[in-house]
Amino acid sequence: MGFDEKLEKTNQWLQETFPTLFDPSQPKPLDVHIVRDIKAHYKNERVAKKYPDDLVIKAALYRYTQSPEYLNCLVD
């Protein structure tokens, strides 16, 4: 699986797992420790919910936080 496919898979997982945080139509400012919190959730719940093993969480969060929609939500 290529990086772009992993990134898309991660974006889908984030939107499905945390719909109120990662709603592309209504972005919200994220906590500075969001990476730590998401990775902890992923590690704790992966076996029980059969989460995918090949997520690229940091890269997906970087792209999300650099999007114009997200940056605009910080200004409002």
In short:
This protein has helices spanning 3-17, 34-49, 57-65, 68-75. By secondary structure, the chain is mostly helical.
Tally of strands: 0
Helical fraction: 55-70%
What string gives the helices and strands in order?
HHHH
Which regions contain 5 or more consecutive residues with pLDDT less than 50?
none
Give the CA-CA distance, first to last residue: 38 Å
**In percent, how much strand structure appears in the residues?**
under 5%
The count of helical stretches stands at 4
Please characterize this protein's 3D structure.
The structure is a single chain. By secondary structure, the protein is mainly alpha-helical. It contains four helices and no strands. α1 packs across α3. The longest helix has 16 residues.
